[in-house]
Write a structure and sequence with these properties.
CATH class: Mainly Alpha
Radius of gyration: 20 Å
Number of helices: 15
Oligomer: single chain
Largest sheet: none
Number of strands: 0
CATH superfamily: MFS general substrate transporter like domains
Structural class: mainly alpha
Helix content: over 70%
Shape: globular
CATH topology: Growth Hormone, Chain: A
Distance between the termini: 21 Å
Length: 408
């Protein structure tokens, strides 16, 4: 069924292929961008600021992006966003070619902000266009393939490849990402779809219509809040992973890239098994298992004494995360009316992703606050231990309040 969908649906093949290319490029940036930041400074707050800058656009622009998506040709919007991202990454490439300096960290943060702004439009539009490309009955399969490929290229192949490429020059991964984005934009431009319905209302009225729908759907609103807390926790740890790997585990760029690849294996496993697991155990139980995986994974990293624990723990965390993603994205795409999907999806991701810059800053601040009293190593462990405890509370809330009605 999975291979049949790819073979019979030309538009899906183009979207899938474009996503694979952009995610491979993103995988290079996933390691190269924070590594470039660490070449400029060792300040955890400054490094956290770079990570936060890339996520702040979700807090600032997610709501208006939804209206823009529902009022635009989503195919052209995705292609133009990828071209804009290529131009921004090229600017980062030029910065990487210069001698690293502490002052340049803030220019890097500014470019990360611009890159994140383009991603808000691109990522929301890509989720919104999918129900126009595949049948509703194929959404779990399509989302599973897309999420799995994202992890294969963006986490399994991209980071270790970046680790190898950095040895030849820190600017090399950024140059490859530019090429990937340009090719992906061309593939998306080739997608052919019927004329899409445009939102006729004014900008404000259209936005309010999406907000009203979101407020009226208690299950959807609670799911967005849980996602926001989970992403806050995740970003607080992800921001410090590179410093944890360098300063606590003593890893090189190539070794850290291999750890991210193991994590990607977990993500691929979770995304591909999600449809089968939901049939076996049901949506509700799988959601609880996802959060339980975060509890175990974060706690294991924070308390670990050897480097081997980190990849195994991240495998568990990412498997749970992808199981969550496939379930909840497919549920939203069915539940939200197509004419509202761009706006409501963006509002949902405002809650879910808008917390990420706050989490990135929180991770850096936790280390900075605890370092003088506890020492560097213990301060770098603290965000992971705190994340595990927070996920315990999140699991209790989900079991008491979170219900995906109509999902079974």
């Amino acid at each position: 069924m999975a291979s049949a969908l790819f073979m019979r649906n030309r538009n899906y093949r183009l979207l899938f292929s474009a996503g694979a290319l952009t995610n491979l490029g993103d995988g290079l940036i996933l390691l190269a961008l924070p590594w470039l930041a660490t070449l400029m400074t060792r300040d955890p707050v400054a490094i956290g600021a770079v990570a936060a800058a890339g996520r702040v656009p979700w807090l600032l622009f997610a709501l208006p992006a939804g209206v823009i998506i529902d009022r635009s040709d989503q195919r052209k919007l995705i292609a133009r966003a990828d071209l804009l991202r290529a131009a921004i990454v090229f600017a980062i490439l030029l910065l990487a070619l210069n001698e690293p300096s502490a002052d340049a960290i803030w220019l890097l943060a500014g470019l990360a902000f611009l890159l994140g702004s383009a991603e808000v439009l691109r990522d929301n539009a890509a989720q919104t266009i999918l129900p126009s490309i595949v049948d509703k009955k194929d959404l779990e399969v399509a989302n599973g393939q897309l999420w799995g490929t994202e992890q294969l290229t963006g986490q399994f192949i991209g980071p270790p490849l970046a680790g190898v490429l950095i040895a030849t020059g820190i600017a090399v991964p950024f140059g490859i990402d530019v090429a990937m984005l340009v090719i992906a934009a061309g593939l998306v431009w080739l997608i052919t779809l019927p004329e899409q319905m445009r939102v006729p209302q004014s900008f404000i009225k259209a936005l309010l219509e999406g907000i009203t729908f979101m407020r009226g759907d208690r299950d959807l609103l609670r799911l967005a809040i849980v996602l926001g807390i989970a992403n806050f926790i995740a970003t607080a740890t992800i921001t410090l992973q590179v410093l944890f790997a360098q300063d606590v585990l003593g890893l090189s760029a190539a070794s850290y890239g291999m750890i991210l690849s193991v994590a990607a294996c977990g993500a691929i496993t979770g995304s591909l098994l999600a449809p089968r697991l939901t049939r076996m155990f049901g949506v509700q139980m799988c959601l609880y298992l996802s959060i339980a995986a975060w509890v175990i994974g974060y706690g294991s990293i924070g308390l670990s004494e050897t480097a081997i624990v980190m990849p195994i723990a991240l495998f568990v965390v990412m498997a749970g995360s992808m199981l969550w993603n496939v379930i909840t994205v497919s549920w939203r795409q069915r539940r939200i009316p197509s004419t509202l999907l761009g706006r409501v999806n963006s509002i949902y991701r405002f809650f879910g992703w808008g917390s990420m810059p706050l989490g990135a800053l929180a991770g850096g601040l936790i280390v900075a606050l605890f370092e003088d009293e506890w020492g560097r190593e213990m301060a770098l462990r603290a965000p992971f231990v705190l994340a595990s405890g927070a996920c315990v509370l999140l699991l209790i809330y989900a079991m008491c309040k979170l219900r995906l009605s109509g999902a079974e």
